[in-house]
Write a structure and sequence with these properties.
- By secondary structure, the protein is of the alpha+beta class.
- It is about 55% helix and about 10% strand.
- It has two domains: about 1-95, no CATH class; about 110-230, no CATH class.
- The chain has nine helices and four strands; from the N terminus they run βββααααβααααα.
- The chain has a four-stranded mixed beta sheet with strand order 2-1-4-3, with no helix packed on it.
- Helix 6 (about 120-145) runs antiparallel to helix 7.
Length: about 230
């Protein structure tokens, strides 16, 4: 994988996208969701492309929105090593009306707004995605030889943990009253749901968002009711 300079109408942007730093990821050592590599910036073994028909047949949900780039990235992240180069080897021209390209850069308020705009349905979709990823790797673990099959088995286990954690998270956001999800957060902590993303966990920041989602609405409602009682 290598970095790319993006251009708009021929003018260089002060931005590299994707902005890769030179490094090497071993199989099953990365953030499970950080697999969005771009086809024009990758070189891969033919074997990965040969896995596409099997993977698409197993994952009808993923096949409805994943392209071949994403499948290849997924195979690379879970089956073997991925090497990133920081050198810029491509100049890509992006117009304002492009259907695909670099996403907008969000400031802090934009990131917070995006984060708190997600809810139960979003985490349910993520759980479905993790389930089909697990299914692909489970099949590959029994068909690929040697270390590839072993890595696929380990990848399936990571996605199984992630699917379970996301299902519990969906249930927390489905709670009718915010405080009702607090016991679920405690249960998630005990089950290790907020562990490292590379191990199939939700990550440390997820617990902050989940706690705020459980507590803040009730605190705001209590404050509003208190003000109303004072006014009376």
């Amino acid at each position: 994988m290598h970095s790319v300079i993006k251009t708009t109408f021929g003018n260089l942007l002060n931005r590299r996208f994707p902005d890769y730093q030179s490094c090497k990821y071993h199989a099953n050592s990365n953030n499970l969701w950080d697999i969005s590599y771009y086809g024009f910036s990758m070189i891969f073994r033919r074997m990965l492309a040969e896995l596409l028909p099997t993977a698409k047949r197993i994952s009808p949900y993923l096949a409805s929105f994943w392209n071949h780039d994403t499948y290849i990235s997924f195979f690379s992240a879970n089956l073997g090593d991925t090497i990133f180069l920081s050198e810029i080897l491509t100049q890509y021209r992006q117009h304002e009306s492009n259907a695909w390209g670099a996403p907008p850069v969000l400031d802090l308020s934009g990131k917070i707004s995006k984060s708190f705009g997600t809810g139960a349905s979003h985490y349910g979709e993520m759980a479905n995605e993790a389930a089909e990823r697990e299914a692909i790797l489970a099949v590959l673990s029994s068909t690929l030889p040697g270390i590839l099959g072993l890595n696929a088995e380990r990848g399936a286990a990571r996605h199984r943990r992630l699917r379970t954690a996301l299902t519990r998270r969906m249930e927390r956001y489905e709670a009718r009253t915010p405080f009702a999800s607090v016991p679920n957060i405690v249960n998630a902590i005990l089950h290790g749901d907020y562990g490292r993303k590379s191990k199939g966990g939700l990550g440390g920041r997820a617990i902050i968002k989940d706690f705020l989602h459980a507590v803040v609405p009730s605190l705001l409602l209590a404050t509003k009711n208190r003000r109303s009682s004072y006014e009376k």
